[in-house]
Amino acid sequence: xxxxxTVPGSSVPSTPLLKDELDIVIPTIRNLDFLEMWRPxxxxxxxxxxxxxxxxxxxxxxxGFDYELYNRNDINRILGPxxxxxxxxxxACRCFGYMVSKKKYVFTxxxxxxxxxxPSGKDINALEQHIKNLLSPSTPFFFNTLYDPYRxxxxxxxxxxxxxxxxxxxxxxxxxxxxxxxxxxxxQMVKPRERNTRYVDAVLTIPKGTLFPMCGMNLAFDxxxxxxAMYFGLMGDGQPIGRYxxxxxxxxxxxxxxxxxxxxxxxxPYLWHSKASNPFVNLKKxxxxxxxxxxxxxxxxxxxxxKECDTVQKCYISLSEQVKEKLGKIDPYFVKLADAMVTWIExxxxxxxxxxxxxxxxxxxxxx
Amino acid sequence: xxxxxTVPGSSVPSTPLLKDELDIVIPTIRNLDFLEMWRPxxxxxxxxxxxxxxxxxxxxxxxGFDYELYNRNDINRILGPxxxxxxxxxxACRCFGYMVSKKKYVFTxxxxxxxxxxPSGKDINALEQHIKNLLSPSTPFFFNTLYDPYRxxxxxxxxxxxxxxxxxxxxxxxxxxxxxxxxxxxxQMVKPRERNTRYVDAVLTIPKGTLFPMCGMNLAFDxxxxxxAMYFGLMGDGQPIGRYxxxxxxxxxxxxxxxxxxxxxxxxPYLWHSKASNPFVNLKKxxxxxxxxxxxxxxxxxxxxxKECDTVQKCYISLSEQVKEKLGKIDPYFVKLADAMVTWIExxxxxxxxxxxxxxxxxxxxxx
Lengths: 368, 368
Fold this sequence. Notes:
The structure is a homodimer.
Chain A: E1 22-28, H1 35-42, E2 46-51, E3 66-70, H2 72-79, H3 95-100, E4 105-109, E5 113-114, H4 126-135, E6 170-179, H5 185-190, E7 203-205, E8 218-222, H6 223-226, H7 245-260, E9 263-273, H8 279-302, H9 312-327, H10 332-351, H11 353-360, H12 363-367
Parallel strand pairs in A: 1-2, 1-4, 2-3, 6-9
Antiparallel strand pairs in A: 4-8, 5-9, 6-8, 7-9
Helix pairs in contact in A: 7-9, 9-10, 10-11
């Protein structure tokens, strides 16, 4: 077992899981001092830093980390006119990092998130838990009352159909937050002192047909399985909303995962979310979204994808057409967003030509 | 606050929640010594004991409990020919207790289940947690990543539609088990030493459209909302299967709850399941069910109820017709079961005439 020996006195294995197959994507506008606390867990991995805001500002990254950093000038240079699909002055810009990654897996984290402790007081290796979640199957077709049946000490309970026990490949691992919960502006305003102190020791699959509010603060996914659907939309500068970037991605991702029989897990790992954002600023950003989501969610709940859509790209293009047709009636913003969804896929395929071959599945490309 | 004062040194309030609105239903074949451990929590409530097997056997109930006890002779006397729908020599007989209860709520528990301890070492008042679950709404239409949003210290997360935050009435509270998990015979055989030691501090709603394996060991429900669907089927003596009684009820209940926009919760409370049943005996009972469930579950996943079905009774009769038509092809057992489902509803309405009035909604009855 050379290479996987655990360093005495440390819970970090000497060869971390998926070291060469996972990128950590961090959107930021400031120096990345928060990485110091994550050093034991993140240092072995490659970081993709997406700098938002003023590109002339210099972002300091603590020494010893292996990273590439992209600012707005880089995004514009790399994508040309297609850069229009990447949000500016909003953490939605992180999805550019998903696009330029060359790895199978991505973990993305906000720079105000720190290492949390489990109830025994031990530091939680969030990344390791995400990797466990992604590498074990999901159970989207039937609910298991003892939660993740693939965890040690757990299994499928009586009455769980045996034909479903192989599970489905896991595309997404959605982690949670201790301390500051991910509340919307109205809830922040009503409950300014609420803190999440409940450590729920569970990972579970969100059942097929059920939507969920996906938060981008602590999120990992399999790029190969679902990457092209992880578009964080048009938010921030010049757009009528913010703080719906991850929600948008989550709705699209879940509909596509359901169609392609892929799994989405939520629960562990927790991280420590240090600081509540300003609820007044948030309300301004969320305001229109609060109304729109009342129509958007039924739209996604009823969205179906044609059988021919057998790749994430095809699914996403089909969704963009439905967005334009059905949500375009609510506000012209959704027409623009639908167009940006198409641009995103074009840009993705341009930067990931081998994906595109698989995706398009056309004879010529496949014959290469 | 007279009457709700807590006895010093005790965590049991002097007036327990729903004291006069809840019955505890216990199926048994032996003396109920297990009640000693539950005394602080159960003694204030009324018990309905359903004695299975030889009716001449005398079941001892510890002193101080308020109870009524029914044996097979009583069931035959009360239901006459309709007693055929109540299973014999199987804990499925417990559903007779649901039928004769006159209370709004029922909690049912197996007699090999004891008080569990939470991670802090405190005895868990399972009944109190079930009541909390039943008295607070469910969230079947959208998933909340921080679990039950109505619990103290929790709420709906960002992105949860505001129109859905009122929730749906909770019809069922499904509790879990520490120590011996509720495994089927094959899993028991493969993992004879597995014990459930993971205390997951969560209650969550099983989303609309998702089926789950409902276990009858630790279960509470609102009789008024869902009682007539809590039929535990034909099991045991003279029947080709056993150990699918609660599963059958769970599938029917979930389909009907989804149709009527009622909620089903699972998670807390835990109890301590003391003893694994014999896996060889279990395999004999489960054998046919293991095959049948592969067809039964898709059947229930695709079952739809007509809009006219606006009461549990009407829903249940419609389901019985679909069972006869579609599952009857698998085995004649399902034709018999479908008939028993109808008999069950007839017996329920006979013993619960005021329910029947509400249920039938006919002018004459309503005019009373």
